[in-house]
Amino acid sequence: MVAVAILAAGRGTRMKSDLPKVLHSLAGRSLVERVLDSCSLLNLDKQIVIVGYQGEKVRQALSHRQDLEFVEQIQQLGTGHAVQQLMPYLQGYGGDLLVLNGDAPLLRPETLQQLVETHQNNQNAATLLTANLPNPQGYGRVFCHGDDLVSHIIEDRDCTSAQKQNRRVNAGIYCFNWQKLAESLPKLSTDNDQREYYLTEVVDYLSPVMAYDAEDYRETSGINDRRQLSAAYDILQARIKDDWMKAGVTMLNPDSITIDESVQLEPDVILESQTHLRGNTTIATGSRIGPGTLIENSKISTNVTVLYSVVIDSEVAANTRIGPYSHLRGDVKLGESCRVGNFVEIKKTSVGSNTNVAHLSYLGNATLGDRVNVGAGTITANYDGKHKHPTTIKQGTKTGSNSVLVAPVTLGENVTVAAGSVVTQDVNDNALVIARSRQKEVPDWHTDY
Ligand code: UD1
Ligand code: CA
User: Do residues 337 and 354 touch, judged by C-beta distance below 8 A?
Assistant: First the structure.
């Protein structure tokens, strides 16, 4: 039996923020939510979140998650005091209790699973996650007898300068035999630099306590200030990008690329410099994205190229070329083998296949068929100041340069719109429409001689 308790009651003074630390966002998800997700491989009997500072806000932020129980730590007198609040709550519970700092968002589910296995296989009183850090400053140091049997944990601020040389740190991730922990919790003192009840002091009263080293020390990073928050983002990004490169994605200058965890990529996708992929985005094989591109919540099919462009909430079919400098603003569907070019903005529009919108256009609330050619500077005038109106352009139609299509309006199949036309009425299939004044020439106008 395993239960988990997440320590999320602290204010996080070093963040210098009104928002409780555990609600700060790391790549779109709060720290506490990431800590909860690190338990995904465990079969948990109970999931408890200990809240305190702005507890109502923390509860609210987690209200979409099922099966969470909240325990209040009214005054925040330290991590040991936080866990003491569980005593009435877990009275009689006979299983193990995982305790996780709410500010350790990079923990992998596999690591937590191994920690629990090590704990159970060795029948330890406590097992804690440790790591050897290149720069252990700020972390509690773990002192062992033998290789892995823990004798003390001393907080950085309580260490002598000799003790500070120890680079093995406490990650703030523990698995306890609850009954044994419950016997030790009342013994905690405040005999330390901060005058707080430290959870780490229970190590003095429990035996055996085992240290389990994380495979990758970066997993154990705790977030105490904004610099650590931004460093965690970099670690997370490096992890995501490494995984995609291993899966067959090429990245040119990966340091300049960012990818949300929710993004899905296929092998032989190429991502160039300054490409940012966010939200629910998928990109299929053979597509080349960037440089200088942002794609959010969009589905990009095979062999598409997107160059210096922004694509939001849209779908792009195979072999289509986008950019440079195109903006698909949302709710856009592009068919196969289309071309959308320089300074083109499209929104709420569906486009058939083999259609080109190559230069300087705006299309909004429009439906375009196959093989349409939208001439340079064509604009759908879709807004009358109050309402948006639809424009339909059927297959094979060509609009001349600088034409304005005043919606609602339908151009039939194979229509030709003369350059500079302002089209206000529907046009029949196969027609040529000219909607501009006829050119008039006045001879010998120039009289200045
Ligand atoms: C803690 C550990 C330290 C470890 C480090 C790992 C202690 C005494 N020290 O230090 O050994 O190396 O984490 O990152 O535990 N919290 C409460 N109630 C409180 C105080 C804190 O719920 O009264 C919560 C905080 O919201 C936070 C977590 O406990 O999520 C850790 O608290 P923090 O103050 O960040 O501990 P550290 O000083 O980092
Ligand atoms: Ca911390």
Answer: yes
